[in-house]
Amino acid sequence: MPDSRELPRCGLLIRTQILPAIGKVRLARLTTAQLDHFYARLRERGGRDDKPLAPATVRQVHAIVRRALQQGVRWGWIASNAASLASPPWVRRSQLEPPDPGRGDPHDRDRCGGGPGLRVLPPCCGHHGRRGELYALRWRDVDLKARSITISRAVVEGVNKVVTEKDTKTHASRRIAIDEGTAASLQEQLERATARAQACDLKLSPNATVFSRRPDGGPWSPNDATKAFIRLRKAVGLPNVRLHDLRHFTATQLLAAGVPVRTVSGRLVHANASTTLSVYANSRELHLTGELCPV
């Protein structure tokens, strides 16, 4: 079963949902019918104040249980995995609504002031888009001459706002090219961070995080950074844009411009091009043709 210290979200679901409901059931006696009843109860009143739990969250619970039972099968504790035939709720994929370029470009660096790191945050999110991995970015991961960043870790905010590091979603590091404007913004951010450290009689370390409010470059809380982005998006006229939507913005713009879907898939770190197409084929920004799908 996943380590709750490494995966705070999984740990929370284990403690609050799984253990109270089925934690005392012997593995050999746990049935598929019991799990289906458990998932149905979560959908009815598994949330806070007995409100329904979202289908996506119930599927997360199912994934944890299924993986745990499968490990029990491998160890010979049980003969079969009761969760393999269970029926967690389906999650309806919502229509993607990437930012409208006509309402204000979220990459417009001249309109992205608003505090330490915020000027460079939108273009970096556009290039990569996973919040936790960006907030774990350190200056040693930035190559301004080669105009690239290396993603090798992520941060998560756990109980009591404790920020911890973990592996990337794919458990692998990768190097990402950035454009000239983003490189220039990162250079300015480095100069500001260096000056802030010097003003406090400190020396900015290569291990300092790029997105930080602290003179020593300590990590910025993901939730606090997102709140700062919300203030920024309102200032530039995009009140309903989420930070993750900048990832969708970049993907849809690249595909609409004719960039091969395999190239875009690599940028998004999708397992394959078909994943990219399944996510973005119905976007209102795209009309995919054979020219964009050389698969």
Secondary-structure blueprint:
Elements: H1 8-22, H2 32-45, H3 55-74, H4 121-127, H5 131-135, E1 142-143, E2 148-151, E3 154-157, E4 163-166, E5 174-177, H6 180-199, H7 222-235, H8 245-256, H9 261-268, H10 273-280
Antiparallel strand pairs: 1-2, 2-5, 3-4
Helix pairs in contact: 1-3, 2-3, 4-8, 8-9, 9-10
Assign an overall shape.
Answer: globular
Please, what is the CATH homologous superfamily of the domain at 130-219? Intergrase catalytic core
Described by strand count, sense and barrel closure, the largest sheet is: 3 strands, antiparallel
The CATH topology of the domain at 130-219 is what? hpI Integrase, Chain A
Helix and strand run: HHHHHEEEEEHHHHH
- Rg: 22 Å
**Number of E-state strands:** 5
What share of the residues does DSSP label as strand, in percent? Answer: 5-15%
Q: What is the CA-CA span between the terminal residues?
A: 37 Å
Low-confidence stretches: 1-7, 104-114, 284-295
Task: Name the CATH architecture of the domain at 130-219.
Answer: Orthogonal Bundle
State the name of the first-level CATH class of the domain at 130-219: Mainly Alpha
Please estimate the helix content: 40-55%
Structural class: mainly alpha
Explain this structure to me?
This protein has 295 residues and is mainly alpha-helical. It is built from ten helices and five strands; from the N terminus they run αααααβββββααααα. It has helices at 8-22, 32-45, 55-74, 121-127, 131-135, 180-199, 222-235, 245-256, 261-268, 273-280; strands spanning 142-143, 148-151, 154-157, 163-166, 174-177. Strands 1-2-5 form a three-stranded antiparallel sheet, with no helix packed on it. The protein has a two-stranded antiparallel ribbon with strand order 3-4. α4 (121-127) packs across α8. The chain is globular and about 60 Å long.
